[in-house]
Write a structure and sequence with these properties.
The complex is a heterodimer of chains A (439) and B (113).
Chain A lengths: L1 H24 L8 H28 L5 H28 L31 H23 L5 H24 L4 H5 L7 H19 L15 H20 L7 H29 L4 H15 L8 H26 L7 H19 L17 H32 L6 H6 L1 H6 L9
Helix pairs in contact in A: 2-3, 2-4, 2-8, 3-4, 3-5, 4-5, 4-7, 5-7, 5-13, 7-12, 7-13, 8-9, 8-10, 9-10, 9-11, 10-11, 10-12, 11-12, 12-13
Chain B lengths: L1 E7 L4 H10 L6 E7 L20 E10 L4 H12 L8 E6 L13 H4 L1
Antiparallel strand pairs in B: 1-3, 1-4, 2-3
Classes of the chains: A mainly alpha (439), B alpha+beta (113).
């Protein structure tokens, strides 16, 4: 028994030293792994489905005269930004360039082929990574729709979205995820987009909501959701897609993906339950809208942390996410009287900020050796890095969104006129009704 | 007692309600209806939008009032729904034979207010 253990130990030592020598000489040649590739492609499809999912989530919350306008805005983002991404966005975000912005050498996906690009992932074709990231670039601007729902001109929306993706999303993605990006070099940890996606879109949403102004009815009466079942359907699709979003960000079918999958699910569940309980306590009943809002808040919050934290941390992150987001939606919004119509800032902005900071608290090298420990595991420096990441992302999103908004407003006018707002965007912007009455 | 029925554009409802409350007319029944006036819906086409079978979405308001409230009610509806353009709608006033409040079995003018 003892001898066999000794032999095994020797074997391990020899093998690992051989491995170390090999590593010292040259990195292993990138080789496509079919399992990894299959998972990343599948994940890309899952994340794609989140945008129509978001459309239903948001669409159910607006009045029925504006239902199609929200579905249309989400869907056109899927189309327009997918083209922007392959032509320009991917290169600006991920091509080697300066620490501030990617180079232009990958424009039109030139040179982005089927060989792995090891700086991002050594085991999947480069284009698989590209199309996975495309879905992130699509859903991020779509999140902002919740802030200006029911009153933005479609033409202005289209121009604003393409500009925002190019001048806000692409640079921030490069800083945090791109080769040579300055926040990445500094050690920022954002596993699947707490800062790049949720803080970025959340702050943009706040700026847009304040600048476009309140809906005409905002001060007079509450605007009831026209179909909560659609929102529940949307929340279900989002939750489902989030497995691709977070577990897919492991870029391989491996243990890290499993960790991300499990903590994502757990944080979403904890947050949904928490919001339902808060609702019950403060509003007298556990509401459907509150429960799905909690789920989305938890899922958004765990996003940056999914690849770095364990299960208990995930529960804590989810519970706190619902408490903070509930406070933002119920108190902050009403105190400052801004019409963030569908709570894009209250859920994604606040959730993203808490999640990115929580990563700096709860990250553990026991979960992900390639990451770093957080404050609670003896590394306060990581928390500071996360704090800087939050401040920089929020600050840049605030200023850049403000400038882009002003430009688009000057060029075509952002808001529809009062009559069109009263009649509804479906008819005035798209010449369609979501529902018929007789047929 | 009269029954005032008004057919208005859907997006005028909020304004009409506000004017009615100002006139202290607080009892109102609202339903969603389809219809058209003498233009058969054609001139109300919005930016070239064609409604199927030219029936347009309208809101019907029904208010039962005592005689002294008829004029204030009509004025409030006009104030809230008039743009001066085709399609603003119509107001009908008919005599009301009886009114019963189910809870108390009160009848007539007592039951209306």
């Amino acid at each position: 028994m003892k001898v066999s253990r000794l032999v095994a130990l020797c074997c391990v030592l020899v093998l690992s030293s051989a491995g170390l020598c090999f590593a010292a000489q040259s990195p292993p040649a990138p080789k496509i792994d079919s399992g990894d590739t299959a998972w990343v492609l599948m994940s890309a499809a899952l994340v794609m489905l989140m945008t129509p999912g978001l459309a239903f989530f948001y669409g159910g919350l607006v009045r029925r005269k504006n239902y199609l306008s929200v579905l249309m805005q989400c869907f056109i983002v899927l189309a327009a930004l997918s083209i922007q991404w392959v032509l320009l966005g991917y290169s600006l975000s991920f091509a080697p360039g300066t620490s501030w912005i990617g180079g232009l050498q990958w424009i039109g996906l030139k040179g982005v082929g089927f060989e792995p690009y090891p700086s991002y992932s050594a085991t999947i074709p480069h284009q698989a990574f590209m199309i996975f990231q495309a879905m992130f670039a699509v859903i991020t601007p779509a999140l902002i729709i919740g802030a200006f729902a029911e009153r933005m001109k479609f033409s202005a929306f289209l121009i604003f979205t393409i500009l925002w993706a190019t001048f806000v999303y692409d640079p921030v993605a490069h800083w945090i995820w791109g080769v040579g990006g300055w926040l990445r070099e500094m050690g920022a940890m954002d596993f699947a987009g707490g800062a790049v996606v949720h803080i970025n879109a959340g702050i943009a949403a706040l700026v847009a909501a304040v600048m476009i102004g309140k809906r005409k009815c905002f001060d007079k009466h509450s605007v009831p959701p026209h179909s909560l079942p659609f929102s529940v359907l949307g929340a279900g699709l989002l939750w489902f897609g989030w497995f691709g979003f977070n577990a897919g960000s492991a870029l391989g079918a491996n243990a890290l993906a499993v960790n991300a999958f499990v903590v994502t699910h757990t944080a979403g569940a904890a947050a949904a339950l928490t919001w339902a309980i808060i609702d019950w306590k403060f509003n007298g009943a556990p509401t459907m809208l509150g429960t799905i809002s909690g789920a989305i808040a938890g899922l958004a919050t765990i996003t940056p942390a999914a690849g770095y934290v364990g299960i208990i941390s995930a529960i804590f992150i989810g519970v706190v996410a619902s408490i903070l987001c509930f406070a933002a939606v119920s108190f902050l919004k009403h105190k400052f009287r801004y019409d963030d119509s569908l709570d894009a800032f209250g859920i994604h902005g606040i959730g993203g900020i808490w999640g990115t900071l929580a990563t700096g608290l709860f990250a553990s090298k026991a979960i992900n050796p390639a990451g770093a420990n957080g404050l609670l595991f003896g590394n306060p420096k990581q928390f500071l890095i996360q704090l800087i990441t939050v401040a920089v992302t929020a600050g840049y999103a605030l200023i850049a969104t403000y400038i882009l908004y002003k430009i688009v407003d000057w060029a075509v006018g952002i808001r529809v006129n009062e009559d069109d707002e009263a009649i509804g965007l479906d008819l005035t912007q798209h010449n369609e009704h979501a529902y018929t009455i007789l047929d | 007692m009269k029954l005032v029925t008004a057919i208005i554009k859907p997006h005028h409802l909020e304004q009409v309600k506000e004017e009615l409350y100002k006139a202290e007319v607080n009892l109102i029944t609202v339903s969603e209806v389809l219809g058209h006036g003498r233009q058969k819906g054609v001139t109300e086409v919005y930016r070239g939008f064609k409604e199927t079978g030219n029936l347009l979405r309208k809101i019907r308001i029904e208010i039962a009032v005592n005689d002294n409230f008829v004029e204030p009610t009509i004025k409030a509806i006009i104030k809230g729904a008039k743009t001066g353009k085709t399609g603003d709608g119509k107001i009908f006033v008919v005599d009301l034979a009886e009114c019963v409040r189910i809870r108390t079995e009160e009848r007539g003018g007592e039951a209306i207010g």
